[in-house]
User: What shape does this take?
Amino acid sequence: MEIEVGRIIRSSTTRFTVGCRVLRPQVPAFGALVKVPAMQVDEVFGLIYDVCMEDDPFVRQMAVADGGPWPESVEDMRRRLAPIEVAVLVVGYRQAGVIYQRLPPQPPLSLDTIHTCLPEEVAAFTGRFDYFRLVVDNRDLPADELLATSLRSAAQARGPAERDFLVDAGRELARLLATDLPRLDGILRRLRPDGNA
Assistant: This one.
């Protein structure tokens, strides 16, 4: 099921930030593939690389209050409009039904609505690995963890073909990071299905 995540509050051709009201369990987390409409293309695709609970003066006061926060105050706080920001790295777009794994010609607009991708969209987008370079070149992000987490999600979207997909992704990573073996090893360890590095 497609879920609305929030609305764009800042955007560029490489990244955008989405404002959310609350974090519900079904709202995507780190590494999820999301989509948003854009002007010159049908949709822009991105990977969530950060979910941030912004500073709230009332929470600061509750956290240091004598006796700590009271359960009813905590529950009331969680029902309020919480300032949550979701940061997304752009990894491609769809135009006239064709998926491109490169930066779009223009960013999405402010207040455009961002949605989660359906499993079949995740499988379609990750059918090629050209977007790996867009992720690994962003060293100011947790790029290695982002790529590994998104690949595990993409593998799950494939059902029985999960292992074959991860092997193919590992081969592409080996080609891409052939000169950086420690980094390659770290990403491949994060891809292991048992979760043990």
Summary: The chain is about 35% helix and 25% strand.
